[in-house]
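re the bet — no i am not wrong, look at it urself. input seq straight from the record:
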Amino acid sequence: MKIAFISLGCPKNQLDLEVMAATLKDNGHTLVKEDIEADVVIVNTCAFIESALKESIDNILDVAWLKKNRNLKGIVVTGCMAERYRDQIFGELPEVDAVLGVGSIDDICTAVEKVAAGEKYSAFGDKNTSPLGGKRVVSAPKYSSYLKIAEGCDNHCTYCVIPSIRGKYRSREMDDLIEEAKVLEKEGVKELTLIAQDTTRYGLDLYGEKKLPELLRRLVDETGIEWFRVLYCYPEEVTEELAEVFNYSPRILPYIDLPIQHISDKVLRRMNRRGGEAAVRRAVALLREKVKDISIRTTIIVGFPGETEEDVEQLCAFVDEAKFDRLGVFTYSPEEDTPAASFDDQIEEEEKVSRMDSVMRRQLEISAANNAEKVGKTIRVLCEDYDVVAETYFGRSEADAPEIDGKVYFSSKKKVRPGTFVDVKIEEAMDYDLVGKAVFS
């Protein structure tokens, strides 16, 4: 049959889709890009916050039109929404024909065959024992991909549903990760981004100690992939060994995603975040001291229950002080079945947005100043494509993670293929992006 995918949410979810795609392909099904061509559409959903849930539902309803007006035989829902609302989907979304929980992605062929035969189907395997990893059909672009080094989470932040959806923290065997990286290299991957709910705890459950630095060293030593990038590192888990590993090879990019969520100890305690202000300050200082020119990305939540104006002032002052290279701000979303949703002192949405704007105004100035310092410098860029409307190439520097950070736009006298590294001399700085021209020796 012809199978189309719609994937929503984070890269971790995307990798589950790639495993399902490989399973279907190996079993004789054909993967098509357009849902209008498909016999079955698989909607791989997110349900982390309310807006993501709404996006998932909207996509399902859009696809359902094809059942009435085209040749679509069925809709399979997978991912976090499927796991979180397993008992409600068939009742509230009768357009759905099959539901697979996050522990049952290996049942994808059965689900497709059942719905094509006009039958309803659901499966919810144990998310704490289901296999990790697996053969993948790498999504476009082929030159940049992700390596999920662990599944689940044990942190139990009071605002977060991930532990209940994804289960306990489980690291993947290091040898398995190395082999997967070798396969990805053969398929043309030039940039590999390590992801998990918490990458800094990698290995603790398997080996009795944190093994992220060792994993990075082995990836460098045993593959030829040119860029390795690390996301989702918790501040209290940043050790001197982890900071030092960025100096092991220039192929380990001086870039780290360090989600701090807040700086007020009071707010962090209510969030059930470990370490508090002291841990955040220590991690930032250690990374700046040990790693030359490191780019630190962070995320912040404003409007958490009980957050006061004084807490926001403290947060803004710290943003001014820390001068994060990349920063994202989210307004708190009260999620059902999380402790924080029942906390007193919930904050009005309008006030949350006002607080978010206060932080982002500061970050805008910091980002613009950081970019201005790069004018006149030559930086290495991974070309992503050519924009025919703007008549310019674009790509990302070492300081820009895929999908979440800025771009480098550049002109070139020579044709530059996507997935090619090129040196770009920066001529202009915008708030979040850079503009320059390719230089060739």
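see?? The first strand starts at residue 2 and ends at 7. told u. also The first helix runs from residue 11 to 26. so pay up
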